[in-house]
Amino acid sequence: MTDAPDDVFPAPTVPRVPVRGGGSFPVRRIYCVGRNFADHAREMGATAPASKAERGTPVFFMKPADAIVTGPSVAYPPATSDLHHEVELVVAVGHDAPAGVLPVEQAHALVFGYTVGLDLTRRDLQAAAKAKGLPWDTAKGFDQSAPIGELVPLADAGALDARVLTLHVNGELRQRAPLSDLIWDVPEILHELSRLYALRAGDLVYMGTPAGVAALQRGDRFEASLDGIATLAGTIA
Predict the structure, then answer these.
(1) Which of 55, 121, 214, 217 has the most CB atoms around its CB within 10 Å?
(2) Parallel, antiparallel, or unpaired for β 16-18 and 24-26?
(3) What's the pLDDT at 195?
(4) Which CATH architecture has domain 19-236?
(5) Is 210 helix (H, G, I), strand (E, B) or coil?
(6) What is the pTM of this model?
(7) Phi and psi (nearest 5°) for 168?
């Protein structure tokens, strides 16, 4: 047996999110849910389901793991003049899912904890891609497109049902919604993801945003909150 060849360059550092109480969460993948609040679906020109029976299937897209940013400064990205904020509940997966489709009733056992994050979007690039029927990866998966707060372990976070998501920009309330308004809740989303991917420890799931998305400018200060659990504050550099 021969030794494996040396890497031709140093391996990149694994992206990590700080954990309340100590330690860090190494990130494997970032899954994102689109149109998971009815009011946001409508503001984006989509039809929102009137009942659970009309939900269809969730909309998913992905960001690279190194899109996370945990510091107080978030770079305004290149190639856009219309950067939008989307405040979201973020779910951290702490255990590998069993093989096959994950039953809804077993999904909660995979959760390590929760926090709040921003799904930043180059809205002009997204609109141009949609108009041509093209994928809009460049609108979502860019550097520093996933600001994220400190992860709070499940035992410290408590139940989600009564929690409220909010986002203030320069002191002005931009987005606010209770998590009870989610079209697909956390166990349902993990179940649906397991139909498509092998969920593993280290995965993050951005759960979708409520109405009120709008532009961010250089120098804007934002403060996102997951009521009673986590906050995320920073400046667009």
Answers:
(1) 121
(2) antiparallel
(3) 98
(4) Alpha-Beta Complex (3.90)
(5) coil
(6) 0.95
(7) -110, 140
